[in-house]
Design brief:
disordered C terminus, mainly alpha
């Protein structure tokens, strides 16, 4: 929902620039040559600057929003979470004493497995980049031989290549993550999610980067120029990507609905008569599990359209509206899927010592912000007039100056909107004070109860027959309790007579 609202603001800024083009050149030219064409470079420069500013503000405000929500939900402190990490069912390593500290246990072969996985990932990514370069070299050769349809066919082939390598990587990445031997499912999901989204970035945008920055130097540009061909390719590839994305969004719901209906029909045919509708508990038992693969796929369906818009959106200014429709459909389908056809997901920690908030996906968004800045500045400097006609030396100077200006903007936004606001810091201090106060009262009451041997007199309720280990330690030696106490009780317990 937060991304949806932010995208609406981005579209309003794009609409303002479009109205500027409309006022100067007319409505037909604004639609035909600006939104769907490659003309009016001054407006595209303004759109590139607006995209950079919007992306920086979005990342900064998103971090503050996540910190505020985590504080409201009481999950912004890793030391007070009672949620246990879910074990990875694909874990196959052995715990052995550490070589550094014999009191610690480490997974054998985990470091070597991660190095092998990183090496294999780099090799596969290099293979994909070489395939893209070879593909454009082949079609450039056909164009030089007189085949006018060569570059148009290249855009269609690139769209199919993106989908093909995406499916291959979905299977290949699982084997690579298995080499890393993650003991918990949280680490497995983060590692695989990062591999999947990074590869999709490279797979989707390697062709755009080649056309925008390498083709003018390595190959000859098409008749409409490299910039015009880039805009044309963006229309074809992004439209094809959205078509595949809509299929990927609707497909799980359609498959689940069909399977449920087919099971009922098969059961009816076996019994020879129409069966009654399944009860609520029977439907719950037959629902599918929301796995880590489903989580990764849903995240990719959100981040990839956003990446198209912010990295190469100036080649197709109207793509923000299409991405907004995709976001809206994705949210509604996810809500329908999780509430009607999926079991309740297993809870996971939002905050750990190595993971905070959105986890690996926040790191992905930060990387996307960096590449958005580099991509937009590069397109403005090397592809758009009047900077495209400058010498390489002056272009590099302008590129560095704009990069420094963007870093200054990031520092300014960090000062104006810190990641953890003052209200969140105040709430954290208040929660810490309440925990310390409760611990102090519990220690005092435990000491008095130990002396008087009367638990109910000082605590106001009967002592449990089998108290927890934390409570036994507190009653036996309250002065040795160094960490804050997590005090829990059942809903039937009455604290009306408790001195706390």
């Amino acid at each position: 929902a937060y991304l949806f609202k932010a995208m609406v603001i981005f579209i309003l800024g794009t609409l303002g620039i479009t109205c500027w083009v409309w006022a100067e050149h007319g409505l037909y030219n604004a639609i035909r040559q600006y939104l769907l064409g490659s003309a009016y470079h001054s407006a595209r420069i303004a759109l590139a600057m607006w995209t950079i500013v919007w992306t920086e503000v979005f990342i900064v405000t998103l971090k503050a929003h996540v910190a505020r929500r985590m504080n409201q939900w009481g999950c912004d402190s890793p030391d007070f979470s009672t949620v246990k990490a879910q074990e990875n069912p694909r874990f196959h390593g052995k715990l052995q004493p550490s070589e550094v500290d014999g009191n610690l246990l480490e997974v054998s072969g985990q470091a070597a497995g991660r190095r092998r996985a990183s090496l294999l990932t780099a090799l596969f990514v290099s293979f994909v980049v070489c395939c893209v370069a070879g593909l454009y070299a082949f079609f450039a050769h056909l164009d030089r031989q007189g085949f006018d349809w060569a570059y148009g066919m290249a855009s269609c082939v690139v769209s199919g290549q993106i989908k093909l390598f995406k499916q291959i990587w979905k299977t290949y990445s699982q084997k690579l993550v298995d080499l890393e031997n993650h003991q918990d499912l949280e680490g497995y999901t983060d590692s695989r999610g990062f591999k999947v989204i990074v590869f999709q970035f490279i797979n989707a945008f390697a062709s755009f980067g080649y056309v925008a920055f390498a083709m003018p130097w390595l190959d000859h540009c098409p008749p409409e120029g490299c910039w015009g061909y880039l805009c044309h390719q963006m229309v074809i590839v992004f439209a094809t990507f959205l078509a595949f994305a809509l299929c990927d969004i609707v497909e799980p719901v359609a498959v689940i609905t069909y399977r449920t209906w087919w099971r009922e029909q098969r059961a009816s045919s076996r019994q020879g008569h129409e069966l009654q509708k399944l009860s609520y508990f029977e439907r719950q038992g037959k629902m599918l599990t929301y796995t880590c693969d489903s989580l990764i796929e849903d995240w990719c369906q959100i981040i990839m359209p956003l990446a198209y818009v912010v990295m190469f959106g100036i080649t197709m200014p109207g793509c923000g509206v299409l991405a907004l429709l995709c976001f809206g459909l994705q949210m509604r389908v996810d809500a329908f899927k999780l509430t009607r056809f999926m079991r309740r997901p297993y809870p996971s920690k939002l905050m750990t010592k190595t993971r905070g908030g959105l986890g690996v996906w926040m790191r992905v968004l930060e990387v996307l912000c960096v590449f958005t800045t580099l991509s937009n500045i590069g397109l403005v400097v090397f592809s758009l007039d009047p900077f495209a006609s400058w010498s390489v030396k002056h272009q590099l100077i302008l590129f560095g100056a704009l990069g420094l200006g963007t870093n200054g903007l990031k520092v300014l936004l960090g000062c104006l909107c810190p990641e953890v606001g003052g209200d969140v810091l105040l709430a954290r201090e208040r929660h810490a004070y309440q925990r310390r106060k409760l611990q102090h009262v519990l220690v005092q009451n435990a000491a008095v109860a130990r002396e008087s041997k009367s638990f109910k007199e000082y605590f106001g309720f009967e002592s449990p027959t089998r108290p927890s280990r934390s409570l036994r330690k507190l009653l036996e030696a309250p002065e040795k309790v160094a960490h804050p106490v997590l005090f829990r009780a059942s809903s039937k317990t009455s604290f009306s007579g408790s001195p706390v």
